[in-house]
Amino acid sequence: MHFDGRAVPRDTELTADLCIVGAGAAGISMALEFAGSPLSVLILESGGFDPDPQTQALARGEVVGLPTFPLEISRLRFFGGTTGHWGGFCRAFDPIDFEARPWVPHSGWPIPRDEVAQYYDRAHELCQVGPPDYEPQQWDLKEAPPLPLGKDIRTRLIQFSPPTRFGVRYRDAVVKAPNISVYLNSNVTSIRPDANGKTIERLDVATLSGNRFTVKAQTYVLAVGGIENARMLLASNQVMQRGIGNDYDVVGRYFADHINLDTAAIVPLTKDFNAKLYTRANRSIARRPLRKGGKLAAVMGLLDLDPAVQRAERTLNYSGEVQSTHFGDHFMHSDRYYMPVQSDTGEQSSFRQVRETLSTIYRNLSDAVSAAFGKESAPDSYYEIMTTQEQAPNPSSRVTLSGNKDALGIPMPRLEWRLTDLDRHTIKVAMRRIAQALGAADLGRLRVSIDLEGVEWPLHMQSSWHHCGTTRMSADPRNGVVDANLRVHGLANLYVTGSSVFPTNSSSNPTPTVIALSVRLARHLKQIMS
Hints:
24% of the residues lie in helices and 21% in strands. By secondary structure, it is an alpha/beta fold.
C-alpha cells in the first residue's frame, strides 16, 4: 500500500512494528526482505514516485574544504533514491578492506568479511548481475584480455548492472506487499528519544505542504544516505544536545568519498597494446566459464594494487580506470572544470584553473608540444589512468550542521571533505608501480602530468558521489556510531544502514555492499523482532 503524507489527517499517530526512513537501495532492499512477513512495516520517503524540484531542494547544503559537487546534484529524493542516476558499477569489497591495518589509522571493521560476503549473492541478484565473481580467470576474456602486468598490478573486474532503478524495478513488490505501507512526500524532521535517551519514542514527520504527523514503531532504521543519516542524528538534539548517538562527537566524522582524478597517461610502445577491457566506453561482453549457468554480462577491468604491495608500501586500496584521452583533457582537463565552489584559500576556481593548467603544461612542455602538434601517432594513441582509490579514514573530514535551514526548518548539512598524506602517498606508489609494470612488459611508458608533490590537490579532482563513513561501525562507541549489528550505540531500537556505516570505503563502488549490509540487517531484525 502507498499513501501521500500530505493527505494524512494532521496530528495523526501512525504505528508499525518497523519504520524504515528512506526508500533508496538500502531501504527498498530491507523492505523486500520483510515483504509478506507477519511484521508491519512503514516506510517514510521524502519524495514521490517521480522527482520534483521542491523536494530535491531539501538535499541542498554547504560545501567547504575540498571542492566537490553540490549536494543536491549527488543525491536524489524520490522513491528509488540515488539508484535513479546510478551508473550500475558492482564490485564487492576486498578482504583487506575489513582488516585493522596498522598503517591506516582508524581502519578495521568490527565484523569479518565473511559476515558481509554471504549476502553479496542476494545483492547481485537485486542489482540484476551475475554472482559476485571479479577475477579475470573466472571469465571468458579472449576478445579483451587483461594486460600482462605481473603480480604487483592485478586486474580485477567490475560487473555492470543495467543499471537497476530500484524505484521502478521493485515498486510493485514493495507497495503491493500486504504488510508494508509506504508514505510518500513524508519528511522526518526529528527523531524523538524518551527522557532517558535510551529508546526512540517517535518520529516527527512533515510535508512541504505544511502537514504534520508522527510515527511510533517498535524499531526504527535510518536509510537516507551518507549525508542525511548524519544530518538527521545531529539535528535531533532536543533531548541530547550533541545529537543522537553523538556522545563522543563521532556522528558526521570520517566522511569519505572516492577520489576521481585523471592522474597519468599511458603511452603505448606497441600496436598490440589492448586496453579494451579497461575502458568504460567499450564495456566488454564476457561469459563466465567456471560457473554452470553463467550468463553474458557487461564487465570492465580496473588496475589494482595487489594486497601484498599495499602491505609492503603501506598504502590504501588503489584502483585505476583506463580510458582514451586527448590533448585538451589530458593536459588542460577541459571537461572537468565546472564545479561551482571555491578552494580552501578562498581563491576563485577560475583563476586557480588557469594557473594550474599553465603549470601542468610547463612541467610537461615537450610532451604537450608533441601531443598538440601531432608528433605522436594519433590523438587516441594514449590512455589516461583515472584514480578511484579508497580514502583514508579522517576524523577532520566531516558533516556538521549549517546555520541555514531548509524549507522544513531543519538545519542544512555542511560538508567539509578532507584528504590526508596517506591518500597522496597511495597515488605516488600506484603510479610508480604501474610505470614499472608497463616498462617490464615493454607495453608502454607512463606520463604523470600532475604534480604529485604539490601541497594542493588538483582543482580538476572530483568526488564520486559516494558518501561514506559518517555513522561508522565500531565495537567501541568512542570510535563509532553503530555497533556490529548497525544499532546506534546506547539506543535500544534505532539502527542505521547504508554507506555511512562503512569504517573504511574500499576502492570498490559502494552499492553492492550497501545492499548486502541492509539485507543482513533485515534478517537480523526479523529474528529478534519475531
